[in-house]
Amino acid sequence: xxxxxxxxxxxxxxxxxxxxxxxxxxxxxxxxxxxxxxxxxxxxxxxxxxxxxxxxxxxxxxxxxxxxxxxxxxxxxxxxxxxxxxxxxxxxxxxxxxxxxxxxxxxxxxxxxxxxxxxxxxxxxxxxxxxxxxxxxxxxxxxxxxxxxxxxxxxxxxxxxxxxxxxxxxxxxxxxxxxxxxxxxxxxxxxxxxxxxxxxxxxxxxxxxxxxxxxxxxxxxxxxxxxxxxxxxxxxxxxxxxxxxxxxxxxxxxxxxxxxxxxxxxxxxxxxxxxxxxxxxxxxxx
Length: 286
What we know:
The chain is mainly alpha-helical. It folds into 4 domains: about 1-65; about 85-150, Tetratricopeptide repeat domain (Serine Threonine Protein Phosphatase 5, Tetratricopeptide repeat); about 155-205, Serine Threonine Protein Phosphatase 5, Tetratricopeptide repeat (Alpha Horseshoe); about 220-285, no CATH class. Helix content is about 75%, strand content about 0%. α2 packs antiparallel against α3 and α7 (about 105-115) runs antiparallel to α8 (about 120-135). The termini are far apart.
C-alpha cells in the first residue's frame, strides 16, 4: 500500500486531484485508528505539496495519536514554518509537552503563545493552569483556571484542579468551595469527594469528612487511602468501633503499609491503648 501511494504521489504535480485522494484516504484511516496507514497517506500527499498546511498538521496529529510524540513535535515545527501563528498547532504542541513529556516550562510557553492569539480561549487557559500547577506556581495556576471559568462556568475539571491548587496552598476553605462546585457538576466524581474529605479533615471538620470519605468509598471500595483517612477521622471523633472497622478495611487492602502507618499516627492516640486497636496494628486484624 505504501509503495503504491508513493508511486501515486510522483504524479501529483500534474494531477492535483490525486492529492485530495491521498489526503482524504489519510483522514479515513485516521478515523479508523489505522495510524501508520494514515501517516503514509499524508506523507504521500506531502510529496506533491511539501508546504501544505493541512497534510502537515494532520500528520503531526496522527503521530501524536500513535504515541510518536517527538516525531509529532518535529512535524508541528514544520507546520509552524508554514503558519507561524497557527493556534491549533501551538496548542497541540503544548498538550504533548504537558501531558506526554512532562516538559512543563516549555508547555507553559506554548499555551501563553496560544493565548496571545486567542486571549479568551478556554482550552489554552485551562492547560496553562495545569502547566503552572505542575510547576507548583499555584497562585498563577488559580488565576489561569479562573480565566478559563469565565468562559465555561460548568467545567468540572477547572473547578476540581483549581481546588487542588488551593489545597496545595493549605487554603482549605477555598479548596472545599471548588470541590463542592465540581461535585455539583459531577456528583459521582470519586476524586472530588475524596479531596473534599481531605480538605474537611484539615479543617478539623471530622464528621463531615467521614461522610465525604464514605461517598468516595461508595464509588471505589478498594481505595485504602479513603478507608484509612476515614478511620483517622473516626478516631479523632472518639468513635472506636467505626475507626477500627475502617482501619481493618484499609489493612485488608494493603496490610503492610497501613499497619505501619497506624502504629505511629497521632490521629489514633485516643484509641491506641484499646486492645482491639493494638491487635489490629500488631497482627493484621480480622
